[in-house]
Amino acid sequence: MLHSSSAGSAALAYQQDRICPHSVHPSLDGDQLPLASAVTMSSQSPLSAVYTRIGRPDFNGLATYGRFGYRPEALSHLTVVEGGGTGLWVPQTIATAARVKVGDRLTGSPLVVSAIYADLAHPVSGWWCSEAKTVVPNPLGGDGASTSVIWVPQVSDLSSLPQEFSSGASVSLRFPVEPLSTLAEAEALRDRGNALVTSLGLPLTRTDVLTSAITAARTSERNVSSALLPLVIISVLVGLAGVGTVTVQWAQRRHSELRLLWVRGAGPLALGFRGVLELGLPLVAGGLLGLVAARLLLPLYAPGAVLAPGTLWVALGHVLVVVAASLAVTVLVACWRAHRTFQRRARSWRLSVVPWELVVAALAVLAWVRLSRNGLGTTLKGGELPRIDVAALTFPLLVVLAAALLATRLLRWSLAWSHRVQWWRVPAAQLAVRRLAAAVGPVTGVVLVGVLAVGTIAVGSAVAGAQKSALDSKSGVFVGANSTVQVSQDIALGRVTLPSSLRGNTTLVGVSTGALVVDPATFTDAALVDDAASVRSLLSGLRRTGDTAPALRIGRAANQEIQIPGLPLVKPVASLPVFPKLGTRGYVLARESVPAVEQVGSWHLWSSLPLAALTSSLQAAGVHYTNVADRARVLDGLPFLTVEWTFGFVAAIGFVLAVVAAVALLLAIEVRRRQNAVSGALSTRMGMRPSVLWSSHLLEVGALASLAVAIGAVASFVSMEFAVPRLDPAPWLNPAPVLPDLVPLLGSMVLCGLLVVVVAAWLALRGVRTARMGELLR
């Protein structure tokens, strides 16, 4: 409950981070309006903007393309190059082209230039992003297609412009709001915003990006909740089984007291409620403490710490239901134990006879069929989140559960036949086997929970890591580098040189239909490739010697000569399975193989620098660019994050199960403290060395921990090897998710297992060291 609510809030925060702050509230836009009408409409919004059509403002007889605009506080968000004050603020490009200086007057108007500011360029700040399409010109576009804005200090100044700017104006109405935290706040804002926009009754185009963000967040929340429901149910069942095991051990320790009560007339049901009197308070306190711990540790295992209103109360209701179920299990198990101990044993169907591992294995096969056919699920429309197939998602967990059940059944059979083992030449091993056989129930329970713990930790951590790396890899292939911008062909022709700050981290790439034109010497300095040395070696061999241009064939492209518009005849000479930007289809040519670089479709700079660093260097050098792309924001990562959050919770459940397994192991040893003390004390007084007894307990506990780690790791690693490539939220993009390096995870689990083994063995020997022989014999 807490995790799914947190996932919804985190999804909203992610979507909100990708939306312009001033576009969160429903907004209005209009163009081709009379300037006077646009000015009147602008008064209906606390943050509006009015822009004239593009014309040719005249300063001192020199006219160039430009447009005028007004937006409250716009001047405070501009960088002044010269001047200041409250007159016209002219962008530097227009000032340079029209030779405008501070103090010049606009022809046909009383307005005077008071400042020259640096043109806005991508990426713009959050205050400008909603207006970027208007205020940021395209320097590579045709004359008059776009231009920077000449700002007026007051909206009334627009009426003083020349007559040619009085028509064709545009207006934007924005409604700034505070950042949203929960989906309930977002839905309330959407409803209020749409009602407000409707009440204005303006003939403008409404833009409502918040609705799509809410829909995506709700879908993400439902996906996480539905995907986790089977795991939560299994975890609750495992927990209830643990409660039953603890109740059995309680009945063993309270055997004398229960027999006394039985002799005095107490029935099985009364003895069952006697167990509740002793175990009920810990169960209730444990449930409440678990809820408190889940809330306090929410930032550690969940995608965020923000919860929807009322979530804690709903979670408390679920906790109380689980606590009530635990108390019911305690009564039933204690009652059943008393009946079997003090009354005639009734013949009953044993659940252990049912081949549960075969049932779970059949479910795993069905889940694999769904996963291999549909992957995570299908997307009905572009841009929507995939509806996650829960059956497919549970495949690796079902494999782990089947392996755990099979391991416990084989272990139970092995311990049943262990009395035939004669290892007295190795007394430590013989004693360890005898103790395991004497406590077959707790032993198999610890192994079952331990395998589930190791498997779920491995599955959750590996799939979450694979999703994170898949998003990073796919965005890298989609963009080609950390950041890219489109530039004019003057750079390819050598008319414009790149600034020195971009040398060694930037390369020039030509993009044509189905082909890339690269510089072999600098391409790997910026492009995202797996094996830079191998790619560099292949590219350096693309030397043109005749009429055809040698090329790399990428993936599924045809292995034959092909004519691409604007390029010479292409002849594949080598191949690679995948390549940045091209994916799995296309061709790569060397720049020196293309004689007419001006015929290449477009030229782009690829850089290993962040987008802000790349564009700031270009701006400082006066290099024009457009069509920026940032690897960190080019893809919608919410589908990947949804799967990552889901399996992050799986890993968290695994950690909880690991704690349960460790505590169950220590509790089982504590229950057998008196038996261990008697046997250990007698053994040492009969000549057994303490080191042998220590080794015996280490072998006993170490065998359980080794079985749990080995079986859980193998089952999870094998299942993930098949499942991870198919748990792909965007299968149309390469590369597919791959299994991350699991050696550190396995090493950490082994170290934690060793720690538990040492502590458990120490607890077992503590009673032997402090035992009084006379008291034990009595």
From TrEMBL:
Name of the protein: FtsX-like permease family protein
Upper taxonomic lineage: Bacteria, Bacillati, Actinomycetota, Actinomycetes, Pseudonocardiales
This protein's UniProt keywords: Membrane, Transmembrane, Transmembrane helix
Membrane-spanning intervals of the chain: 227-250, 271-298, 310-336, 348-371, 391-415, 436-464, 645-669, 698-722, 742-765
The keyword Membrane appears for this protein: yes
Domain of life from the UniProt record: Bacteria
